[in-house]
Amino acid sequence: ENFVVIGSKNNLAQEYNIPILKPQIKANTTLSNAIAFSRSNEKTTKGITVLDFDDTLATTKSLVKYTAPNGETGTLNAEQYASTYQDLAEQGYKFDFSEFNKVVDAKLAPLFEKALKLQKKFGAENMFVLTARPPEAQKAIFDYLKANGLNIPLKNITGLGNSTAEAKALWIADKVGEGYNDFYFAD
Question: How far apart are alpha carbons 11 and 18 in whole angstroms?
Fold first, then answer.
C-alpha cells in the first residue's frame, strides 16, 4: 500500500519507512498553487492559448509501433492510439513512439488557420502547443509550425510523452498557478 506524505511530514515518512510518491507530490503542489491563485484577489487578466498538435494543428502519417504480449507487432495512427491505448496498455502492450519524434508527411489541420489569428490574441509568447508526443518531438513541431507561419517560441512547445487527460490537466493547472486566468484550449 502506498501513502502520500506532503510537507513537514517527510521526516515522519522517513522514520516510519513510508514511500513518498514524487509524481503525486508534484501533482498536489501544482493543484495547490492553481487553487491558491484562483482564490487570490488578482484581477489582472493574463491570457493563454493552448493547442494540441495532432489533428488540431496538423495531421501526420506518424505511427505508434506496438508489441503485443504474445510478441505480435503492428502500428497505430494517432487516432487509433488515442482511442485504444488504455485498454492495450492494461493488456500488456508495449509502445514505441520513435516516429512521433518527427513530423511525418504533415498537412495543415482545420484549426491551423484559426491558430494564425489566435497568435495575435494573447501574443505568441502566450501561445503553447501541448502534445502527448515525446519531448524529443519539440524541434520537429517547431520547424513545421514556423515553416507554415505560426511563430510559437520553441520553449512553448511541450511534449508530455503521456496521452492521459490527467497529464494535460496538470499542465493546465500549472499554468493557472503561474497566473494565467483566460484560457483558449483546443485538443
Answer: 10
